[in-house]
Write a structure and sequence with these properties.
Layout lengths: L17 E2 L15 E6 L2 E6 L3 H20 L2 H17 L1 H8 L8 E2 L10 E2 L2 H18 L3 H5 L1 E3 L5 E9 L2 E5 L7 H12 L3 E5 L6 H11 L8 E4 L3 H10 L5 E5 L3 H14 L2 E5 L7 H4 L9 E9 L3
Parallel strand pairs: 1-3, 8-9, 8-11, 9-10, 11-12
Antiparallel strand pairs: 2-3, 4-5, 6-7, 7-13
Helix pairs in contact: 2-4, 3-4, 4-6, 8-9
Length: 309
């Protein structure tokens, strides 16, 4: 009797993937059931489109996780950020492809500053490497920034007077479009470093790096709820971010004039901390890796202590 042999497939079948949201350490689909399609060189990519309810769930998860993250030692927070850098480096090629250049070797153009020529933007590979360095930098600042931002105040009387920084709380990071990975990392790293929890909204034009960052966070010892990542329509979610009373701060870049006015209106009503960056050079380490990027999202607490003198 002739032996039977299994028929080998002639074509490889790709498993279609829809990038999920990252909320409370899990990967849920949007409660609305909506998705969006991003065109890439390799074909269309499906991502979940977050709704107002998803934003509310993410803020609740961040609020629940914030006391524990703030109470963790500064050294431990630095270890977690360093672990994120390690895991991001392990998926470097995937991020390079997600940013959208040809294997990270094609230079792109961007607008120069007023009165200067447009400069060549660094490659996608350099963007990923700089993002890794940024996480490592803020991992190092985690147990050092308090000495830079805080102080021992001279007072009259038998007292010691100390000013120490404490985290603000729950902060929303709104990623820019010009550097979808590096811009997002530059917004969330200083906020996490100080003990805040984060709800991040990915780039409007290319949210894929933000979605992959959620997968990195899930394997980086980041406690559930400390970092939550949404992908969706900025115009839809920004009004709810501005008006949400349980959000303590907004860290954003690349917003239009109308979006800025919308955020400022929400701040006037509920007193959020807001920092919006105007066309920053994300590759400028001296500026973007400074402890003064941490300062907008800490509260200064002054302590009086009697001295023995």
């Amino acid at each position: 009797m002739a032996e039977r042999t299994a028929k080998q497939p002639t074509e490889r079948l790709d498993v279609l993937k829809t990038y999920k949201l990252f909320i409370d350490g899990k990967f849920p689909r949007s409660e609305s059931g909506r998705s969006m399609i991003i065109a890439t060189a390799a074909g269309p990519v499906h991502l979940c489109r977050a709704s107002r309810k998803d934003l509310r769930d993410a803020v609740e998860a961040a609020r629940k996780a914030q006391p524990g993250w703030a109470a963790a030692t500064a050294y431990n927070r630095g270890q977690v950020l360093y672990r994120m850098a390690e895991m991001l480096e392990g998926r470097k090629r995937e991020f390079v492809e997600a940013i959208g250049t040809e294997e990270g070797t094609k230079a792109r153009r961007h607008k120069g500053t007023k009165g200067k020529k447009a400069a060549t933007k660094p490659t996608a590979e350099l963007e990923v490497l700089t993002a890794i360095d940024r996480l490592v930098s803020y991992a190092g600042w985690a147990d050092k920034y308090a000495q830079v931002l805080g102080c021992n105040n001279p007072v009259s009387g038998p007292f010691y007077n100390f000013t120490i920084p404490e985290p603000t709380g729950v902060v929303v990071a709104v990623a820019p479009d010009d550097a979808p990975l590096l811009g997002l990392i530059s917004l969330i790293a200083p906020v996490l470093c100080a003990g805040n929890t984060v709800v991040a909204l990915g780039s409007s034009t290319n949210p894929i790096p933000a979605a992959i960052l959620g997968e990195v966070s899930a394997t980086s010892d980041v406690p559930a709820g400390v970092l939550n990542i949404l992908t969706g329509d900025r115009a839809e979610l920004l009004p709810h971010i501005a008006g949400h009373r349980d959000i303590d701060g907004i860290h954003a870049a690349g917003l239009s004039g109308e979006e800025r006015m919308l955020i400022r209106g929400g701040v006037a009503e509920n007193l959020k901390r807001v920092r919006v960056w105007d066309n920053p050079d994300w590759f400028d380490a001296a500026s973007c890796q400074s402890p003064w990027r941490i300062e907008p999202f800490v509260e200064m607490k002054t302590v009086w202590h009697p001295s023995a003198v």
